[in-house]
Structure formats: structure tokens, C-alpha cells
Amino acid sequence: MPVTKAVIPAAGLGTRFLPATKAVPKEMLPVVDRPAIEYVVEEASRVGLRDVLLVTSRSKKAVEDHFDRETEIEAALERKGDEVRLRRVRASAELAEVHSVRQQSPRGLGHAVLCAAAHVGNEPFAVLLGDDLIDERDPLLAEMLAVQERFGGSVIALMEVPREQVSMYGVATVRPIPSGPDDRYGIVRIEDLVEKPPIEEAPSNLAIIGRYVLAPEIFDVLRETPPGRGGEIQITDALRTLARREQEDPGAAPVHGVVFTGRRYDTGDRVDYLKAVIRLACERADLGPELYPWIEEYVAAGGPKSGLS
Predict the structure, then answer these.
(1) Which of 92, 125, 180, 240 could serve as 5's disulfide partner, Cβ 3.0–4.6 Å?
(2) What is the pLDDT of residue 309?
(3) What is the spatial distance between Cα 190 and Cα 80, in angstroms, rounded to a whole number?
(4) The domain containing residue 77 runs over which residues?
């Protein structure tokens, strides 16, 4: 069954960005001149997943509103003849058919995914986390969909991280499998997973990043998954159950990993968020020619001590 739906959990409190996120959802923080969540919905739409479900909370109405039409602003831009800004304002509403469901309490990523069960039904689906932005030039999600079509089951995105950072992620035990001629990234079979292990206990430095293509069986497993690390229902624990089930029963749906080597921007960390804004702005034709020379001058003059403005 082809994958047609994407689920984007967006119910988190955004505490790392307080006080900016006291009244503004973290998903609406701008990355250059678009909110982070728009990049994620655009990524799903680009690979044909135009049925998008946002899992939000009562404080996230602004996220839902962003993907609706804003007739007053559009009318004002039309009167001014500002076609460029008019296209930009309308773009978010035209990306996909966006739905929403509320997660009543913050009980973890696994619970957020479970909130999507009624909308998804009995078919595979993608999950995209809003903290991870994948550069549009790197076809990670397209590759994951191709792997899921080839092998069935579930597929998770993995990335090598420095050993000292493994305790910040879910970490995988894997078995490499032969790559096909069209595979852009390495493909592995998942044998085990552990959520945020101590550095000395981590089975590898292959960390789960925020892209998943999940078989519908995940919902039944999540319903039976007890709270794990942090007292929350972890998607990593549910995927571990699926991976171990496949080892015991060769007829069960497998779990594969795609080892991503492209450009990823972690907007959930303040410093990495700023790096993403600077990098993406420098690469834009309308901003880079002015911004990049200023950054070079700023660095050459001694950075914070330079007095440049």
C-alpha cells in the first residue's frame, strides 16, 4: 500500500527557547522568513504526501492557522500589486491538505503518534519531527519511502553522531544489508534500539533523527507500550518491540534504517537553530550576496570585539 499521509507532532512546550516560546509556538519561530513548520510540511508535500496531520495542543492554534488562507492580508497585497509577497503568503495554504488533532497531555512522542491512529487508519505513514529540517537538496524522505516500498515494515532515519552525543538520542544496533544500484544512502536492518543510553552503554553512534516511515502495526504496539525514559511513551521502545518481533518471527514486518549523510539542521537547539538560519540565508540568492560578505568582515575583524553593526 503506498504511503500518502504524513504526521507532524507539534505539541511540545518549546522550553529551550523560553521566553520566546511563552506565547509563540516553537514551530512558528522563523527560519529566515518562514516558520520552521512550513519547511517540514513542504518536505512532505514534495514527495507526494499531501495529506498532513498536525498533532498539536491547545496553545498551538497559530500553527494550524498558518496553513489556512488569510484573506485580509491577501486582499491588501492584491491592492498594492505586490505579487511576490502574495505568492509567499498563499504558498503555505497550498502545500497540502492540512488537518489537526490535539494531544491532550504531553505524554511523549509515542503517544503523539498514537493520537494519529484514527486519521491514518490501516496504512503505512510518515512521521516528520519539526525540530529536524532536512535540506531540500537531500532526498532523505524519498529514499525512506523507496526502502519501505521494497521491504515493507517500518523505516527510520539514522545519522552518525559524535560518541559524546549518543545519550541525547535513540541509538540503534544494526546489521548492514547490500545496497542496490539506486540507493543514495546506506541501508541497515535494525536489530535493537535503546532510548538515550549512557555513553558507555551505547551500542553504536547511529542515532535516530526525526524521520520515520511506520507500518500501521505501530499503533497496536504503542497501545501496549508502558512509559519509558522520562515517564513518557517512547516511539523508540515501540520500534524496538517490532524489531525484536521480526527476529523471533521471520514473517513479521521488519524495521530498516536509512543512514543519512546529507544536510540536517537541528532547530531544537538554540545554537544549531542560529546556524541553520545563517546557513540557509547565506545560500539564498536574495540575501546571501549581502549577508555573506558582512559575516566574513565581522569574523575577520574579530567577531564580537569588532564593533561592526
Answers:
(1) 125
(2) 58
(3) 56
(4) 5-268
